[in-house]
Amino acid sequence: MQPGERLLEAASATVPLRVMAAHNGLSAKLVVEAGFEAIWASGFELAATRGLPDASIVTMAEHLAVTREMVSASRGLVVADLDTGFGNAINVIHAVQAYEVAGAAAAVLEDKRFPKMTSLISGGRQELVRTEEFQGKVEAACSARNRLVIIARTEALIAGLGVQEALARAAAYEEAGADFILVHSKSRSAAEVQQFARRWTGRAPLVLIPTSYPEFSVEDARDLGNVAMIIYGNHAVRAAISAMQRTFAEIRRDGCALGADTSIAPLEEVFRVQGMSELKSQEARFLR
Ligand code: SPV
Ligand code: MG
């Protein structure tokens, strides 16, 4: 089965899939080891781990290379964040084909104008393209894919346009062929997306990213009845930042690395995640 087919099958269960953010081969491996059903190749994480803003600065080639790395390191199902599709509907055609060849299971396309502004920044410039224009992008994506799952994401709530506009856009994107609808919100409560989900009458299941309403649980999603995936959008890079800051400060303060040594992963754990035991057995078998 192709990755897209595996994802569709997994997403048809009654329990929503949990999709955890990652930004490279290592974090993608850890997502799979932790038991998440899929990996979110987050544009935000990819930008942040390069020390850059999430504003269409990281190129498609870079993002694609990292997506390929995540697929091959983890062997997991990767939901790739294609942002705006790196341009217009023609760019989308090429992007979708490239991500499918790279082994992604799904591509998420959002209805923001290129270059985009990251969604959760306060006072951000949030401009959307016209509904018809984005329908063209979704149709282009569906025409270019083979088995890749196409997730259309509306940023209507992020842009402050309200639930009615978000529902209208979602319906238009479903009509254009989207397999799933992702509705993003920066509200501090789940009420906004819950209202959206209750009023959604489309057949396409929903995808949520509850970063700004983190108390929202898998059970809450299941109660809504039409949520197929929950994406934990940026928790890998945030965990990494905190762990690095703590460790670096401890070593600076102590003047040696002894104290920090016990609170970070031992070297053996790094060797394990890297696959050093496989390398050793390959050496024993093939090096003559
Ligand atoms: C990402 O993780 O890249 C996302 C989610 O698109 S958010 O940053 O909240 O827009
Ligand atoms: Mg993103």
Strand content: 5-15%
Beta strands, count: 8
Taking pLDDT < 50 over at least 5 consecutive residues as the criterion, the unreliable ranges are none
**Strand order, biggest sheet?**
1-2-3-4-5-6-7-8
Q: Provide the helix percentage.
A: 40-55%
Bound molecules: sulfopyruvate, magnesium ion
Q: Rg, please?
A: 20 Å
The biggest beta sheet is recorded as: 8 strands, parallel, barrel
Classification by helices and strands? alpha/beta
How would you describe this structure to a colleague?
The protein is an alpha/beta fold. It contains 13 helices and eight strands. The chain has an eight-stranded parallel barrel, surrounded by nine helices. Helix 8 (191-199) links the parallel strand 6 and strand 7. Helix 5 (89-101) runs parallel beside helix 6. 43% of the residues are buried. Sulfopyruvate is lined by residues 21, 42-45, 81, 118-120, 184, 209, 211, 233-234.
What's the short version?
With 288 residues, the chain is of the alpha/beta class.
What secondary-structure arrangement, pairings included, does this model have?
Blueprint lengths: L2 H9 L5 E6 L2 H9 L4 E4 L1 H6 L11 H15 L3 E4 L7 H13 L4 E5 L20 H14 L4 E6 L7 H14 L4 E4 L7 H9 L6 E3 L9 H7 L2 E6 L2 H20 L3 H4 L5 H8 L1 H11 L2
Parallel strand pairs: 1-2, 1-8, 2-3, 3-4, 4-5, 5-6, 6-7, 7-8
Helix pairs in contact: 2-4, 5-6, 6-7, 7-8
The structure holds sulfopyruvate and magnesium ion (MG).
Task: Give descriptors for this structure.
eight-stranded parallel β-barrel, binds magnesium ion, 288 residues, 48% helix, binds sulfopyruvate, alpha/beta
